[in-house]
Design goal:
Strand order of the largest sheet: 5-6-7-3-8-9
Number of domains: 2
Shape: globular
Number of helices: 9
Domain ABC transporter: 7-232
Distance between the termini: 49 Å
Protein name: ABC transporter ATP-binding protein
Helix content: 25-40%
InterPro entries: AAA+_ATPase, ABC_transporter-like_ATP-bd, ABC_Transporter_VariousFunc, P-loop_NTPase
GO molecular function, one term: ATP binding
Number of strands: 13
Order of helices and strands: EEEHEHEHHHEHEHEEHEEEEH
Strand content: 25-35%
Pfam families: ABC_tran (PF00005)
Radius of gyration: 21 Å
CATH superfamily of the largest domain: P-loop containing nucleotide triphosphate hydrolases
CATH architecture of the largest domain: 3-Layer(aba) Sandwich
Length: 288
């Protein structure tokens, strides 16, 4: 029976020595979405994605991907495509060599898809990967990940170093691949413009914890900007307040409530996490 979730975490924790990269994270991501994973540098985004790919193991808690332990076996590995932050390719290999390697490593490899996409983005099969531009390397890495026809594509800041034109091309290809494969995708990015462009599901990760998660439309519909003192309004949760205005969550009818943009919502949760995290760390330091 097919699991309804591409990723399911319960109290997921990952520590590196005394530093917590993830702390008691609970998360259920349903199938059929392009998920934007956002948060500041050092929030734990890469750690979460590396756990999902089976590259590292959790300190405690559980994580399942497509209903199984990450990288449980060769069949499970074939169901997940991963593009790391620096879109790694082998500099001395040609584009054609990368496709041959992909075919050798993956029994579900789709050569027609790989060759077609390489032609569509204008890559010369004989070109060495070390001579490609950043955008071309990103397109090659994404093609290799997608040509194994995975059920889940995972992207860890794949477009961070690309210029705006190359980034737009990469995001366009990402959407096309997801549609063609019928796959789900998780995109980690600190660029909210990328998330707004392609994602319909949002996860905000700050200070090693999940702050909020859900379909973008539902999150925007359930958050409002409110003037005055929100403490007087029943049925709302204040996420962040400053300068006499607050961003609050709740479906209660609030006089004068205004809609919020995605960037405003994300920044409110990040600001709250920064303050609560600093208070927690200060209390821990005093206790020691």
């Amino acid at each position: 029976m097919e699991t309804p979730h591409v990723l399911h975490a319960e109290r997921l924790t990952k520590r590196y020595g005394r530093r917590a990269a993830l702390t008691n994270c609970d998360l259920m991501i349903p199938r059929g979405h392009v998920v934007g994973l956002v948060g500041p540098n050092g929030a734990g985004k890469s750690t979460l994605l590396q756990l999902a790919c089976g590259l590292i193991r959790p300190t405690s808690g559980t994580l399942s991907v497509l209903g199984s332990r990450p990288a449980a076996n060769a069949d499970h590995l074939a169901r997940v495509g991963f593009v790391a932050q620096d879109t790694p390719v082998y500099a001395s290999f040609s584009v054609a060599d990368h496709l041959k390697m992909g075919a050798w490593l993956n029994s579900s490899w789709d050569p027609a898809l790989a060759n077609r996409r390489i032609a569509e983005v204008g890559l010369d099969p004989a070109q060495k990967a070390g001579r490609l531009s950043g955008g071309q390397r990103a397109q090659l890495a994404m093609t290799i990940a997608a040509a194994k026809r995975p059920e889940l594509l995972i992207f860890d800041e794949p477009a961070a170093a690309l210029d705006p034109l190359a980034r737009r091309g990469f995001m366009h290809s990402l959407v096309e691949f997801v549609g063609e494969l019928g796959a789900s995708a998780v995109l980690s990015s600190h660029l909210l413009s990328d998330v707004e462009q392609v994602c319909d599901y949002l996860v905000v990760l700050c200070d090693s914890r999940i702050q909020v998660a859900g379909p973008v439309r539902e999150l925007l519909a359930s958050h409002h900007r409110i003037a005055g003192d929100p403490a007087r309004i029943a049925g709302v949760e204040v996420i962040w307040a400053e300068h006499g205005r607050a961003l609050a969550r709740g479906h209660a009818a609030v006089p004068g409530a205004e809609p919020v943009a995605l960037e405003e919502l994300v920044l409110a949760y990040m600001s709250r996490a920064a303050v609560t995290g600093a208070v927690s760390r200060g209390s821990a330091a005093v206790a020691r």
